[in-house]
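Fold Annotation — chain and its backbone
Encoding — discrete vocabulary of local shapes
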Amino acid sequence: MARRLGWPIEIGGGTYAGAMLAAERLVRNGVNALVSFGVAGGLDPAMRPGTILVPREVLTDAERLPTDQTLGRRLGTPSPIILFGADSIVSSAAAKTELFTATRAVAVDMESGAIARVAARHGIPFAVLRAICDPAEHDLPPAALVLPDRHGAIMLRRIFHSILTQPRQLRSLPALAANAMAARRALHAAVTQIRAHA
């Protein structure tokens, strides 16, 4: 989806380490700014699936990393919210509540923190465009914890294995699919709007 913007794209595979490597590849190839694009998990109960985020800063365990407001305005309407850049999946509603209480970050993902650090290291602008997928009150089923490969492809065999070995999670998968579709529609609309104003 992000390729429609015409910008250089690298896929981090949904992990902190993968995102850092992808961002470094982009910098080596001469980009002059970095954007973290994709979905995020809700921490604030007010953040519903499909909500678009253009946060003012990314918080990690070690530091606060401000986003570039000029770049953020190209992506949408920046808002005074915080995104937490985690290095592992925050999968349970209880863990999301605990993280929200501790940080006041409204959402979490595993790539933005790494990308923000690469941007800071190289002194280039950085911004985030993410859509909420799983809301704060939802536990992620085990199948949703199967990360894509390093090219961003869904690992269907591992997902099917997870479902076969833990069939009770089937009840939660329709809601997750609906949330993912809402996030995808929101990102598609955001990309269309960015292209229209380019």
About this structure: The chain has a mean pLDDT of 90. The helical segments are 16-28, 69-75, 93-103, 112-122, 156-165, 173-196. DSSP finds six helices and seven strands in the chain. The longest strand covers residues 34-42.
